[in-house]
Amino acid sequence: QVQLVESGGGLVQTGGSLRLSCAASGRTFSVLRMAWFRQAPGKEGEFVVAISWSDGSTYYLDYVKGRFTISRDNFKSTVYLQMNTLTHEDTAVYYCAAGLDYGSYYLAKDYHYWGQGTQVTVSS
């Protein structure tokens, strides 16, 4: 089992920044990739960004490229999502996810563990 706990969400004005954290615990040695997904009100969930736990390769949703940065701290078993130049369209609940195999980085169904989510609200 792997437990994921997100933190860092909140309310920010358009153009502002937030940093989300996702701390993993349990059988973290089995984690091969981690990602952030989000779900806005009334919309389906969508992939945002992912990172390979081994070599740090990253994969981004086009809309967030250049604004969001994912990073990892292997020692702390924590993934961070730095979000800059936030827009109203970034308002959503953000979920951290962990994958245990070499499945797709982009598909929610290929992740095995999920955090409880953290709300990000960008006021326009």
Explained architecture:
The structure is a single chain. The protein is an all-beta fold and 124 residues long. Helix content is 0%, strand content 52%. The chain contains no helices and 11 strands. It has strands at 2-7, 10-13, 18-26, 33-39, 46-52, 58-60, 68-73, 78-83, 92-99, 113-114, 118-123. The protein is globular, with a radius of gyration of 13 Å.
What tags apply to this protein structure?
124 residues; 0% helix; single chain; seven-stranded mixed beta sheet; four-stranded antiparallel beta sheet; 52% strand; 11 strands; mainly beta
Task: Outline the secondary-structure elements.
Blueprint: E1 2-7, E2 10-13, E3 18-26, E4 33-39, E5 46-52, E6 58-60, E7 68-73, E8 78-83, E9 92-99, E10 113-114, E11 118-123
Parallel strand pairs: 2-11
Antiparallel strand pairs: 1-3, 3-8, 4-5, 4-9, 5-6, 7-8, 9-10, 9-11
